Amino acid sequence: MALALGFEFEDSVFAQSRDRGRGGGWAAYTAKRCEPQWFCEEANSEDDVEILTAKKFRGDLAYRQQEFQKALYEYSSCLLLLPSSNVAMRRDVQEGQARCLAHLGRHKEALDIAEKLRNGATNTDHLTTVLNLQFAIYCHLKNIEEKITCLQQLISLHPFNPWNWKLLAETYMSSLQTLPPSFISEIKLVQCKDCTANDQVFQTSPRLFEMNLQCHKTHSGREDVWSVRDNSVSYSDSHMVEGSLHIKEECETRDKTKHATFEFWGQEALKDVWIKACASFVRTRLLLQITQLQQSSFALEKNLKVQQETEDKVKGFGLKEESLLLITEIMGEDLIPEKLKEDVQGEIKCVGPSALTSLVTTSAIEFEGKWFKKLQDSLSL
């Protein structure tokens, strides 16, 4: 008695195959040939897919040519015709709308679209795209806090992506570079006056803020003459302190963004930001070194170029050798080949919207506690 296996083969499986040779009944296939920018002309086709594709491509071309108003029109008209079932193309077109709106200064509308896309995300690829979109919008707004949040969430999804770490390091640096020169001067003066303690961890680097601050001692050893240079501002002796206070007030009034950045970080936290920026650059370099083993041609050339640029930036922090070795060790603790392979194989792709939320850090405190707290404790900052 034959056992029931739970399935049966269709008879057609064992039928004689069709004659696929010449004259075997198959219609001849003729590939469609498209001229360059064929989509720029209004389509006379009755094929809805071709009409939608042409509109989408016209929007893409206008965006590339930086004709953002025209691109927005094409994307919007395409979206009106798109069926709700075509989720992939709808998300692509909506992202194009948001990017155009950001370039046109309509940031709230752009952020609203990005939020809708985030709420509708069902896999990590969707969420990655949305976070990159939000980061781009906040770049237009020059909102450093939100930029850092987006990058931290991207790194939570893709901890081995060197480019996100590089962007995070540069954003930390930009937060320092946007501070008023007077604030930087105050912090650096405090650091220099306590140079013995600070030298145990790091040395003052003029290139860090593209400004020089030097402490000159008189023969009696008294630090009474400071020299600060920030492009057009110069103080050459201690009698200019009153003038520096006046310049400080002008800086605060003239640039509210810089003042807001200072308020966000706080004076005491700025030293931590230096270390976070340096650690992120070190992590970038380590990841690039790993990925270069699998690269060739122009990809390898770009990798090596960015490695050199990153190395130069790390040197610009003026860290002592033992401190740099410590940072490298801590930021590379999880970069074990076996662990990397397991993490790549176990990457979650398709999950529900609620599950996606658990894949990213909810706050800067959580992220920085995971990646930087051990480093800060080790450096005793």
Low-confidence stretches: 187-244
**Distance N to C terminus:** 79 Å
DSSP helix fraction: 55-70%
SSE-based structural type: mainly alpha
Rg calculated over all Cα atoms:
29 Å
Mean pLDDT over the full residue set: 75
Helix/strand order: HHHHHHHHHEEEHHHHHHHHH
For the biggest β-sheet, the strand order reads 1-2-3
Coarse shape: globular
Biggest sheet features: 3 strands, antiparallel
How much of the sequence is in beta strands? under 5%
Q: Number of DSSP helices?
A: 18
What is this structure, in a nutshell?
By secondary structure, the protein is mainly α. It is built from 18 helices and three strands. The N and C termini lie far apart (79 Å).
Question: Can you walk through the features of this model?
Answer:
Mean pLDDT is about 75; it is low at about 185-245. The chain has 18 helices and three strands. Strand 2 and strand 3 form a beta hairpin. Helix 12 (about 270-290) packs antiparallel against helix 13 (about 295-315) and helix 14 runs antiparallel to helix 18. It is mainly alpha-helical and about 375 residues long. It has a three-stranded antiparallel beta sheet with strand order 1-2-3, covered by helices on one side. The chain has helices at about 50-65, 70-80, 85-105, 105-120, 125-140, 145-155, 160-175, 180-195, 195-200, 240-255, 255-265, 270-290, 295-315, 320-330, 335-345, 355, 365-370, 375-380, and strands at about 210-215, 225-230, 235. The longest helix has 22 residues, at about 270-290.
